[in-house]
Design a protein that fits this description.
The complex is a heterotrimer of chains A (about 325), B (about 260) and C (about 300). Chain A is mostly helical. Helices cover about 75% and strands about 0% of the residues of chain A. Chain A has one domain: MetI-like fold (Orthogonal Bundle). In chain A, helix 4 packs antiparallel against helix 10, helix 6 packs across helix 7 and helix 12 packs antiparallel against helix 13. The two termini of chain A are about 45 Å apart. Chain B has about 260 residues and is an alpha/beta fold. Chain B has a single domain, classed as Rossmann fold (3-Layer(aba) Sandwich). Chain B is about 35% helix and about 25% strand. In chain B, the strands form 2 sheets. Chain B has a 6-stranded mixed beta sheet. Chain B has a 4-stranded antiparallel beta sheet with strand order 2-1-4-5, with no helix packed on it. In chain B, strand 4 and strand 5 form a beta hairpin. The longest helix of chain B is centred in the middle third of the chain and has 14 residues. The radius of gyration of chain B is 18 Å and the shape is globular. In chain C, about 70% of the residues lie in helices and about 0% in strands. Classes of the chains: A mainly alpha (about 325), B alpha/beta (about 260), C mainly alpha (about 300). At the A-C interface, helix 2, helix 4, helix 5, helix 6 and helix 7 of A face helix 1, helix 3, helix 4, helix 5 and helix 6 of C.
Chain lengths: ~325, ~260, ~300
């Protein structure tokens, strides 16, 4: 396009581009090849998503050919491996919901308080010590947290609540909450530190104290970031596996009482995978139906998070 | 310098020095601020005029490593605003501030204006309604927003937002109002509205305004101070400063030979 | 309504400052709970597991008798799985990050890739296990092998490495790029000789954090069906009869540290709690030291940036 324009303006018949400046075909090809390879690497993430959806949906289709979707959603028993098989996913969902609620009721207040403290109160020294601590806490393997819930937290809780059984949603949920705190704290702190200084100065200039400024100006301004961190926390809680598999017991139990043991969607999958189910059997298929349910729940929260972000987009 | 019809003093800087860490940003400033008058601070960028302004409400206390020396006396009670015994929050409750860029809070128009009252613990709806209306009228914004007080303040235009910020500052009846280049982010029409407002406001409140626009200083102020490299070069009535500056450096700046 | 008196204003300020102080204490309290949990975990596992910290514990296979059971197959398995994970995830992640920062045009494909990466980060790890069970184990026929596990964890930590790579590249000022292009380097030469070397510390930090996450992952590996009782070691990597023998190890059954801990934790016999504690301590030391190295690297990097 450019060279055409040039030749139109060029009265003589001289070559428009000298040999030295002409595009090097070989170099061009190898550059293109490299670009294609890099694109391929980037596309792996898309393939992963496609693979996840494909596996979960195709195996679930086999499952729903044998189990009606109404039973799946309404049955109040989950006994897929018994002779009298029932497939009521609500049993597992209840365990997931209760443990997640316990976890969030610890993680959201604690994480938010830490975030406000670090972003609005702490000096740089405290922050430099606190951030690595939070990072280390977030890096602890969940199996270790599971051990902690079962063998440390549960015995301690049993001193306060003597009727608490050895496995319970409560102690698993509490430890899960501690595990999630760093995620909320660090994402919320990022959101609050992104609030421009001019807003804070406006509040301080009116005679606000630090806490008043934080709660009435900074937090509302960072609302969408906070909401996003809570949504991620929900996804983490719903998808957490090992803490529950270790400390919440794995028997299916339709309950809303955190003091009871119960299986969750995730711990059920672990339980089945630990056994030796033949490929393609109904028991094998249940874990994909459970997995699909799990993915749909996290997807709903992800969409909710994106909607919140769009609706309350910060315009400072 | 001789001021004949001396009005009452509202504040007075006495040998004020200020340091950002090691860097000395204000050098021995002495200057009166007269009650119910508009005083303009002019000078090239980096001359310390904003730094000086922000000393009056102790904004520098928000950041570590800043240090004041000297005094800013505040009248009628003759308090030294910079004294370590004086609580910066108390200072800020008496001295309002309007910033360079409009910075409405992420709240409704109403709650923005009510903010300072709520900070002071006022929660009575009738009192708040009354004060908010009064302040919005004072900020020349009432007629434009009286039907949409519950809308988000960020929906207003830039000029309206700045007048909202003025109303927000007025709501708590400050004794001194600081303006830090309040029109630098606004178009000429919105600028004219703010200037007119400043003119109107001096009946109620003492005003100290930083501006990099000399015409603006000439239009709105009664007194003008010219600052250069952290020093107060010349202070006087605005007419005198602009018509017959005593210092060569002031003259150079005003006639556009520098800055 | 008259303005507040000085006394009233001071009372309001005093109340506000009291709330500030209370909140500060609350913030420090919440932070110290976090610290307390880390310390309690490490101390508890160290004390409970102390009687197992012998050479035998590291050199023995799993056993039905708690006192003789060791973590040999588990730590060897963890190292081998990490090797596969790193070999797969590092080149893929760096290449993807490089593509998105240096090559990608602002079009729908780029947009889809970016949305995808951020969504994948929120997918529960056990779902990756199901993906691997369906695709790697059965579709590709890799079976319940080190290869399946390593690839699964590679997919899991890919977003971490991509994001770290992109951030490291973004921190490189445009003038470096322009300087290289101005002397006639191609885009790839610019990447190869300038962008990648300068981004290396940042990428390395991301890789370490990703691997620290992977080494502690349990759920996806259980899901693909890793065994919990293994009394042999896979062949030593790259030593068998070439060419096929070189990769015999990747197809071997295996177990890893977290699965060993899970197995011991879920035994009713309390003697195994000791083993779980000891193995948990070893895993914690591995993970925390990896994280500490990453945090230190990042800290060093922030101090050394000179452009």
């Amino acid at each position: 396009m450019n060279s055409q324009a040039m030749s139109a303006n060029n009265p003589s018949d001289l070559p428009v581009v000298s040999d030295r400046l002409a595009k090097n075909a070989m170099r061009n090809v190898s550059e293109r090849l490299i670009e294609a390879l890099l694109l391929g690497a980037a596309a792996v993430s898309v393939l992963t998503t496609v693979g996840i959806v494909y596996v979960l949906v195709s195996e679930s289709i086999h499952f729903f050919q044998q189990v009606s979707i109404v039973d799946f959603l309404t049955d109040t028993q989950w006994t897929p491996l018994f002779d009298d098989a029932h497939f009521g996913i609500m049993v597992l969902v209840s365990g997931t919901v209760v443990s997640s609620l316990v976890a969030l009721s610890v993680a959201i207040p604690m994480g938010t308080i830490i975030a406000i403290y670090l972003s609005e109160f702490a000096n740089s020294k405290v922050r430099e010590i606190a951030k690595p601590i939070l990072e280390l806490l977030g890096g602890i393997p969940t199996i270790v947290f599971g051990y902690f819930a079962l063998l440390v937290v549960t015995p301690v809780l049993q001193v306060i609540l003597p009727e608490l059984p050895g496995f319970s949603l409560l102690s698993a949920g509490l430890v899960m909450g501690i595990m999630i705190v760093p995620y909320i704290a660090s994402l919320s702190e990022d959101a609050m530190r992104a609030v421009p200084m001019s807003l804070r100065e406006g509040a301080y200039a009116m005679g606000s104290t630090r806490l008043y400024t934080a709660l009435h100006v900074v937090v509302p301004a960072a609302f969408s970031g906070l909401a996003a961190s809570y949504i991620l926390a929900i996804s983490r809680a719903v998808g957490e596996t090992m803490i529950l598999a270790v400390a919440a017991g794995m028997q299916p139990n339709l309950t809303w009482n955190p003091m009871e043991p119960a299986a969750t969607i995730t711990s059920y999958i672990v339980q089945v995978a630990l056994g030796d189910l033949p490929h393609g059997s109904i028991g094998y298929l249940t874990i994909f139906a459970a997995g699909l349910t799990l993915l749909l729940i996290t997807l709903v929260f992800n969409i909710l998070g994106q909607w919140l972000r769009a609706k309350f987009r910060e315009n400072y | 310098m001789q001021i004949h019809d001396n009005p009452a003093l509202k504040a007075e800087a006495r040998n004020l020095n200020f340091y950002y860490g090691e860097a000395k940003a204000l050098k021995g400033i002495n200057m009166p601020i007269y009650d119910k008058k508009v005083t303009a601070l002019i000078g090239p960028s980096g001359c310390g005029k904003s730094t000086y302004l922000r000393s009056f409400n102790r904004m520098h206390d928000l950041y570590p490593g800043n240090r004041y020396e000297g005094e800013i006396r505040f009248f009628p009670d003759n308090t030294n605003l910079l004294s370590p015994e004086v609580d910066p929050i108390e200072v800020r409750m008496r001295v309002g501030m309007v910033f360079q860029k409009p910075n409405p809070f992420p709240k409704s128009i109403y709650e923005n204006v009510a903010y300072g009252l709520r900070v002071r613990g006022e929660n009575n709806k009738r009192v708040l309604d009354d004060k908010v209306e009064h302040a919005l009228k004072g900020g020349a914004l009432w007629d434009e927003v009286k039907d949409r007080l519950n809308e988000l303040a960020s929906n207003l235009s830039g000029g309206q937002q700045q007048r909202l910020c003025i109303a927000r500052a007025l709501a708590t009846d400050p004794e001194l109002l600081l303006f830090d280049e309040p029109t630098s982010a606004l178009d000429p029409i919105a600028t004219a509205a703010i200037e007119e407002l400043v003119h109107e406001l001096k009946k109620r409140v003492t005003i100290l305004i930083v501006t990099h626009n000399m015409q603006q200083a000439a239009r709105v102020s009664d007194y003008t101070a010219y600052m250069f490299l952290g020093e107060m070069i010349e202070f006087g009535k605005t007419d005198e400063i602009f018509l017959k500056p005593k210092d060569k450096r002031t003259e150079d700046y005003i006639t556009g030979r520098m800055g | 309504m008259q303005p507040l008196t000085t006394e009233q204003i001071r009372a309001v300020i005093a109340r506000g400052k009291l709330k500030d102080t209370i909140f500060k204490a609350l913030g420090l309290f919440c932070l110290s709970i976090g610290l307390l949990v880390i310390v309690a975990l490490i101390v508890d596992m160290f004390i409970k597991g102390s009687e197992r910290f012998t050479l035998d514990f590291f050199m023995n296979f799993a056993s039905r008798r708690a006192t003789q059971a060791g973590i040999l197959s588990a730590w060897v398995g963890s190292l081998l799985v990490m090797l596969v994970t790193a070999l797969a995830a590092v080149p893929l992640g760096v290449a993807a990050g490089l593509y998105l920062e240096e090559y990608a045009k602002r079009n729908w494909l780029t947009h889809i890739i970016e949305v995808n990466i951020s969504n994948l980060a929120a997918v529960p790890s056990i779902v990756y296990g199901l993906l691997a069970l369906g695709i790697f184990v059965y579709q590709f026929g890799f079976g319940q092998s080190i290869l399946s596990a390593g690839l699964t964890l590679a997919l899991l930590i890919l977003p971490i490495i991509i994001v770290a790579t992109r951030e490291a590249i973004r921190a490189i000022p445009a003038m470096i790029r322009e300087g290289s292009m101005a002397v006639g380097a191609t885009r790839w030469q610019t990447c190869r000789y300038h962008i990648i070397p300068y981004a290396m510390p940042g990428i390395l930090t991301g890789v370490i954090i990703g691997l620290a996450r992977a080494i502690g992952e349990t759920a996806p590996i259980i899901t693909i069906g890793a065994l919990t009782f293994i009394a042999f070691l896979p062949p030593v990597p790259f030593t068998g009869e070439p060419p096929a023998g070189l990769f015999e190890w990747v197809m071997s059954p295996f177990t890893v540290m977290p699965i060993q801990i899970f197995n011991w934790t879920s035994r009713p016999d309390p003697a195994f709690e000791v083993n779980a504690a000891a193995a948990g301590f070893v895993l914690m030391v591995m993970v925390l030291s990896m994280n500490a190295v990453a945090i230190y690297l990042r800290y060093k990097m922030r101090k050394n940036i000179k452009w």
